[in-house]
Amino acid sequence: MEEVDEVQEELMAVALKRNFLMPANEIYGHTAGFYDYGVVGAAMKRKLENAWRELFLWREGFYEIERASVLPAAVLKASGHVDNFGDMMARCAKCGWADTADAIVEDAEALEKPEQYEAAIKKLEFKCPKCGSKEFRVAWFKLMFETKVGAKGDETGYLRPETAQGIFVDFPRIFRALGSKLPLGVGQIGKSFRNEIAPRQALMRLREFTQMELEYFFDASEGRHPRFGEVEDRKVRVLTVEQQRKKQGRAKEISCMKMVEEKLVPNEAVAYFMYRTQQFHE
């Protein structure tokens, strides 16, 4: 882990020096979790976005939309985000330093309630890295940026935590406009926002970031993909459910056809896009 951290620090040093990235609002004091793309970084980002469009949209004959970034509370209530999109936050009772509770308590799978986390942190005798106190309060923290919409401020909205919801709520109009036929692919590239408790790992955990997302709508009773034949013999690196349960971290290379035949994935469509995703990263 230390070696990984050292590599990340070296990469960030180069990125800042060569103007790939800039700490946002740096002259007024940088706020963690926000970065600007510099002259070189912005050009590289556009190339990456167009490479994604080429593979996932243009070659497939899919479509792209651009959605508003503010969503009304009703949308995110229906999706479950209002009630469930958050983390347990551990805050130092003395100085206010905070982090996610599961970053302090590593084996936290069985913990659900704030008082359970507080007891676990106390048992660990964890000390606040800022002031040394061992007193912590744990509470549920919503990871969405909330805002009030309109002059009266009587309607609650949120900066979208991910781009998927916009595609789903627009689907009826898109579906009708394109002839009411399946399968149908709709993609979007845009900003998402998450009020992270403790942004870390440079660009890996930000409060504002760009997502490239594709939603593929098809008849689940069939599950076939018209271009599956192109990838059926291609191998994908996967961790099976059994491996994950046994906490075996070494990925296996399995062909798309074998994944479907052995029911490691629900259908051809899932296997097809797993391979395309791997292809994009390579």
Structure write-up:
This protein is α+β, with helices and mostly antiparallel strands and 282 residues long. It folds into 3 domains: 15-80 and 146-217, BirA Bifunctional Protein, domain 2 (2-Layer Sandwich); 86-142, no CATH class; 228-281, no CATH class. Helices cover 35% and strands 23% of the residues. It is built from 10 helices and 13 strands. The strands form 5 sheets. Strands 3-10-11 form a 3-stranded mixed beta sheet, sandwiched between helices. Strands 4-9-8 form a 3-stranded antiparallel beta sheet. The chain is globular and about 60 Å long. The protein starts with a helix and ends with a helix. The mean pLDDT is 93.
Précis, in short:
The protein has helices at residues 2-17, 39-58, 73-78, 81-84, 101-104, 114-124, 164-177, 241-245, 256-261, 268-281, and strands spanning 21-23, 35-37, 63-64, 70-72, 86-92, 98-100, 136-142, 146-149, 155-159, 184-193, 208-217, 235-238, 252-255.
List the helices and strands and how they pair.
Elements: H1 2-17, E1 21-23, E2 35-37, H2 39-58, E3 63-64, E4 70-72, H3 73-78, H4 81-84, E5 86-92, E6 98-100, H5 101-104, H6 114-124, E7 136-142, E8 146-149, E9 155-159, H7 164-177, E10 184-193, E11 208-217, E12 235-238, H8 241-245, E13 252-255, H9 256-261, H10 268-281
Parallel strand pairs: 3-10
Antiparallel strand pairs: 1-2, 4-9, 5-6, 5-7, 8-9, 10-11, 12-13
